[in-house]
Amino acid sequence: MAQNTLSRMIGSDMFYSFCRSPAAIISAVIALAIFLGAVCAPLIAPHDPFNLASLNLLDANTPPAWSPDGSSQFLLGTDDQGRDILSAILYGSRISLVVGFASVLFSLVIGVTLGLISGYAGGRIDTVIMRIADVQLSFPAILIALLIDGIARGLLPRDAQDALSLYVLIFSIGISGWVQYARTVRGATMVERNKEYVQAARLIGMKPFMVLRRHILPNVMGPVLVIATIHLAVAIITEATLSFLGVGIPPTTPSLGTLIRIGNSYLFSGEWWITIFPGIALILLALSVNLLGDWLRDALNPKLN
Hints:
Blueprint: H1 2-10, H2 13-19, H3 22-39, H4 41-44, H5 85-121, H6 123-137, H7 141-155, H8 158-175, H9 178-192, H10 196-203, H11 208-244, H12 256-266, H13 273-299
Helix pairs in contact: 3-5, 3-13, 5-6, 5-8, 5-9, 5-11, 5-13, 7-8, 9-11, 10-11, 11-12, 11-13, 12-13
């Protein structure tokens, strides 16, 4: 069974298109390397940046190992708290990926659900949902995320803000990105609901929920997967931006945005490695995911095949 599945996958048009795209291959290798490094961070990281007992302030602002004042214990140097930059990048990539995947999944569920309802029901329901989407589109996603994060911080107790910051960040990024899914699914649903197989399902008495789940949803998921892949890169950058602004992950938690923000204060004093290496990791992660999304969009476009 597994061998037949693998054979069909290798012989598919998607795999052929992937093998003919050097950018997709390189992007997949980079994304996979960062993903495996983040997942296996407890096993491959030289140090644990979460273990405050192991940190030594005397090791703070140590340059990379190849510098004259560097140490072989810290390959990419340390930050202002003595945390190993390489270990912080590996653990910080985990936070970026968790926030990215969770917020994209949250946006996808809300957007696809509202898009199916809007496109299938029509009428006033469609008007209300689309007007809400239009209003949200008039504001940048980062401003919506900042607004929601500020409201959450005002409502939550001060001692619980750090513990719930990750969930607030996921919710704020996720709620700001559902519109693209909803508008795309709505358009596809309005096309599919007038086709013969949907009309036949209605005639035999199938309930609207079953029609949406069994017949319409599988036929509108192609564009949704492309949007989700590209949105993942946007969510990762948004998380880093919020953390850079100091409203995302707490400063004690090593994330890519936090490391860039900390390093930015020391950039002109000579400690360039604190912000440069996390910035490179963020660029590679976002760019590789974005290029994979571009390839997936072209591979699923029948006009280009």
